[in-house]
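Hi, does anyone understand the following?
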Amino acid sequence: MKNQQLKHFVQVAQGKEPAELVLKQGRVFQSFTGEFITADIAIQDGRVAGVGEYTGREEINLDGKYVTPGFVDGHVHIESSMLSPLEFARAVVPQGTTTVITDPHEIANVAGAAGIRYMMQAAGQLPLNTYFMLPSCVPSTGLEDSGATLTAADLAPFLQEPHVLGLAEMMNAEGVLTGDTAVYDKLTMAQPLHVEGHAPGLMGKALMGYAAAGVSSDHECVTREEAEARLRAGMYLEIREGSAAHNLAALLPLINEYTAPFCFFVTDDRHPADLLREGHINSIVRQAIAAGLPVAQAINMATLHAARYFSLRDLGVIAPHYRGDLLVFEDLETWRPSLVFKDGRLVASEGKLSISLPATDTSSVASSVHLPPLGPKDLALPLRGDTAHVIGLVPHQIVTKHLVMSVRTEHGCAVSDPEHDILKLAVFERHQASGHAGIGLLQGFGLQRGAIASTVAHDSHNLIVTGASDADMLLAVHEIERMQGGLAIVSDGQVLGSLPLPIAGLMSEQPAAEVATAVARLEDIARGLGVAEFYDPFLTLAFLSLPVIPELKLTDRGLVDVNAFRLIAVGSEG
């Protein structure tokens, strides 16, 4: 605030001048004391001027409704919602999320710096505080080809942007521990900003080394032991409850008066149907309280603790000089706000956004699927014998098993064998039309006929396809190419359903409800073709190409033994 504006603000805080807006007689949550008090909230210039008894030029009587700070998602990939930033905001702001800290590494893997700039531009006019952590690993490893490679020199200019808070999830833990020069260029570039972690399973002295490099949080903990180890290493714990990974129940038992201030909630990845059906951060608050977490701790973990970690000093508290990001609840059971205020302005009411949002030019991140001509030979998988390394799915998990098993062959090549639940799996490089392709085998998916393809394939987001026949796999690939990105299901030479994702092959410009309906229809089709009930067809497919999650994955370079961190031949003799 400028001099005179601040002086007037202080007069309003003292009750000597009327406020622009006063929310009357609410039960106001006090973050520092963990209590609700009945009071008015005076709002001036988009900020809270005072809590007590006030008059305003505009007044809204809350009649004893509960008021909390706006919720914060401490780590999210907006692209993983398959929604544009505009439609993402339209979905989550009415649920009470007023701040997100996002890592745009999905779109950065497709479009590089242009992808990051698009996300920043798109977020600029939204009623949602959108802060950015710069992608640390594009590509995530050297075992795949992405659409860009971002070095420290490429990322450094973004550090001047006011909404950039540091370096996003450092997935290359091995590079941190072994002193990889490119990794350390990024770590030192980010000083003294925040560096988020991504180190599943890392423990002991290796964890000490990881934290010593300045990594100060982690969202990949799946057990209490992992979580406690991070807290003991001085790292904040990001408790994740998304669409793919559900860690809340396992980690809640370690929350107490000592640990809670160093824990906060994140979604990481949440799909449109889950956003609409369950909610966003509000759903985690609801689940946590239902599981026994005290209300005050749950609210602070959804607000203040993330704000503190990221040094967002004017967020997460309803008190003088904090931003007027406020949620009004009828009760403390449903946790769906009836009113949402952003910077003191009413932006959502009864679950719907009440303001219009400007569109963003997407031309810089469109037309992102580039493939050479593909034919049957491009799916051939020669084997010397009939034994192969096969990716084995694990129900409800994104980790896989490394199987060695007998497979069906024809003319010296492995083929899909749906009778024994073994499918061919392929990943085609789709950014530069290089012709790079990895062909492997997948067990456990359940598909009996047809093929499923997607350009949502973490982290490099190449085109991934699995199927019971090569002909249907090729048709699915060609449908994806025609749409310039998206999801597709085919069977017996017919396209049964598809969802275009024209923004980098990752996001739709359609509203969340329409995307959710389209995805649900595709899931129904997939179930009809045999996909097992305990696998989300496209979510499962999306993680089969991620070479940092054990044990066996497939990239456009080939089959990856994640534990050994190397490419291996599909044939068991490899």
Remarks:
- The chain has a mean pLDDT of 96.
- The longest strand covers residues 19-30.
